[in-house]
Amino acid sequence: YGTMPNFDPSDCFVIGGENGEIAAHLMLIPRTLQFGSSLLPASEIGVVGTLATHRGLGYARALMDHAIEQMNTRGD
User: Fold this and answer.
1) How far apart are CA 36 and CA 63, in angstroms?
2) What's this model's pTM, rounded to 2 decimal places?
3) What share of the chain is helix, strand, coil (3-state, %, to 5)?
4) Can you tell me the distance from the alpha carbon of 63 to that of 61, in angstroms, rounded to the nearest whole number?
5) How distant, in Å, are the alpha carbons of 3, 21, 22, 32, 46 from that of 43?
6) Does the pLDDT value for residue 3 go beyond 90?
7) Which tens digit of pLDDT belongs to each residue from 37-49?
8) Which residues on neighbouring strands pair with residue 22, listed in sequence order?
9) Percent of the chain with pLDDT over 70
10) How many CB atoms lie within 10 A of CB 13?
11) Residues 63, 48: contact at Cβ < 8 Å?
12) Cβ proximity of 45 and 37 under 8 Å
């Protein structure tokens, strides 16, 4: 996704683990939805994952909450 048009690294959310690893990650992928003649900004929530050693700690939930907050802030 990093090479796609309109890619913005600020759409990637990461929770770090030990030794510089990424414990959990979520990415927003900007989209535009069309209903009739109306165009609506939206985002796809994708590329979500948590390392097995970090599952059950609420990392994915925290990333989802943050992503939804970001989408609301920018009007997706």
Assistant:
1) 33
2) 0.84
3) 35, 40, 25
4) 5
5) 17, 26, 23, 8, 9
6) no
7) 999 999 999 889 9
8) 16
9) 99
10) 17
11) yes
12) no
CB 26 within 8 A of CB 63: yes
pLDDT at position 18 = 86
Q: Which residue has the tokens 């985002």?
A: 43
Q: Give dist(CA 7, CA 27) in Å, integer.
A: 10
Q: Would you say residue 1 has pLDDT above 70? A: no
Mean pLDDT of 24-39: 94
Tell me the CB-side half-sphere exposure of residue 25, using CA atoms within 13 A. 11
pLDDT at 11 over 90: yes
Please tell me the distance from the alpha carbon of residue 60 to that of residue 48, in angstroms, as a whole number.
Answer: 8
